[in-house]
Amino acid sequence: MFKYLTYNVKYPIDATKNKIEGRILVTFVVEHDGSISNVDVANSVYPSLDKESIRVVRGMSKWIPGKVNGKTVRVKYTIPITFRLN
């Protein structure tokens, strides 16, 4: 997952110009079929960084769904996405 994020996150031009950096926490739900839903930003840093984080998480391929007692269940995840200028 982190390899996917590394290769797919694009630093927004306006955030680069304004030298905005930060770590965004993105929450989402892995559904019974492994698809991603309910993508949301838990802590906002800057609107274009938030938008890019949501775009990238929505673009992830299906996950292996969680299981409890042999039945697939919905699982909520929170992941950090860090934007840092060189």
Q: What string, H for helix and E for strand, traces the elements in order?
A: HHEEHEEE
Stated plainly, the CATH topology is called TolA/TonB C-terminal domain
CATH class: Alpha Beta
Structural class: alpha+beta
Strand order of the largest sheet: 2-1-5
Portion in beta strands: 35-45%
Question: Biggest sheet, in brief?
Answer: 3 strands, antiparallel
Query: Can you tell me the CATH superfamily?
Result: TonB
How many alpha or pi helices? Answer: 3
Show unreliable segments: none
> Total domains, how many?
1
Radius of gyration, whole Å:
14 Å
E-strand count? 5
Mean pLDDT: 95
Proportion of residues in helical segments: 25-40%
What is the overall shape?
elongated
The second-level CATH architecture is 2-Layer Sandwich
How far from one another are the termini? Answer: 22 Å
Could you characterize what this model shows?
With 86 residues, the chain is an alpha+beta fold. It has one domain: 2-Layer Sandwich (TolA/TonB C-terminal domain). Helix content is 28%, strand content 37%. The chain has three helices and five strands. It has helices at residues 2-8, 13-17, 47-58, and strands at residues 22-30, 36-43, 66-68, 71-73, 75-83. A three-stranded antiparallel beta sheet has the order 2-1-5, with helices on one face. Strands 3-4 form a two-stranded antiparallel ribbon. A hairpin with a 5-residue loop joins strand 1 and strand 2 (36-43). The radius of gyration is 14 Å and the shape is elongated. It starts with a helix and ends with a strand. The mean pLDDT is 95.
